Amino acid sequence: MGAPSLVRNLKLRHHIAGLKAEWNVLEAPYFRALREGTFAREDFVETQRQFYAAVAHFSRPMAVLASRLPHAEQRLPLVENIFDEHGRGTLAHGHEATFRLLLERLGVPSARADLLVPWPEVRAFNAALTGVAAFEDPLVGLAVFGIMEDLFSGVSLALGRGIVSRGWLEAAQVVHYPTHADLDEQHAEGFYQQLDAPHAAEAAAAQVIEQGLALGGHLLTSLYDDLFRARGRRTA
Predict the structure, then answer these.
(1) 37 vs 30, 34, 99, 162, 234, CA distance in Å?
(2) What are phi and psi of 6, to 5 degrees?
(3) pTM score, two decimals?
(4) Domain 10-229, CATH
(5) Which residue of 4, 70, 132, 140 pairs with 193 in a disulfide if CB–CB is 3.0 to 4.6 A?
(6) pLDDT above 60 (res 2)
């Protein structure tokens, strides 16, 4: 693995586009129910409260993955991403803080967020990310995080719009998701640039990268499917 590529690998980008079209994430039950108005508000809020545990965890396995990359130019895009996750030094603007604020505006007091006991579905997602970052080929890790950032950009836009269209918040009150709708496209590109050259250079590396992309899509889409199935569950 060398420096991030300055030339886009069109074969890789077409493969990614094909995966996204095949998955059609926004037609999953979670997002369809929100869009169609069949997602009960209390159930949606409870699943978002659970998702907070994933938000709070996300940058940690990314830091593990960064530590396994041998060259500074490889680590830098991940470090920048982690810095963004932490509000670029202003923690009140960090992703944990903005998601907590969103939960508060949806009616979840800060004290209740502090008492969160993650559901097994969220624990499994977090454990999988940590395992990928720590033990899989770094190309798999880069692909997993890249496709997740890519997918989450569209997911964030849909969730922000859904919250407003349901009348649960005014557009100006929706935080966290509008930032990710834009920022995560940039983050995804940072990961993809690390994958362009190895994907083009060697068939074995291309296969590893494509497996990582499939794994990342599976983990994220499965999390939303799992949250939707468990939406009526309540924890203290």
Answers:
(1) 11, 5, 22, 9, 21
(2) -95, -5
(3) 0.93
(4) 1.20.910.10
(5) 4
(6) no
Among 196, 168, 197, 164, residue whose Cα is nearest residue 178: 164
Residues 12 and 192: beta-carbon distance below 8 Å: yes
Q: Tell me the pLDDT band of 84, cut-offs 50, 70 and 90.
A: confident
- 99 neighbors 93 (Cβ within 8 angstroms): no
CA gap 159, 88 in Å, rounded = 24
> What 3-state DSSP class applies to 66?
helix
Cα 33 to Cα 159: distance, rounded to the nearest angstrom:
11
CB proximity list for 62: less than 8 A, separation 6 or greater: 78, 81, 82, 85, 133, 145
Q: Note whether 130 and 64 are within 8 A (CB).
A: yes
Output the CA–CA distances (angstroms, integers) from residue 125 to 6, 106, 121, 215, in the order listed: 32, 24, 6, 11
* Rounded average pLDDT over 33-55: 97
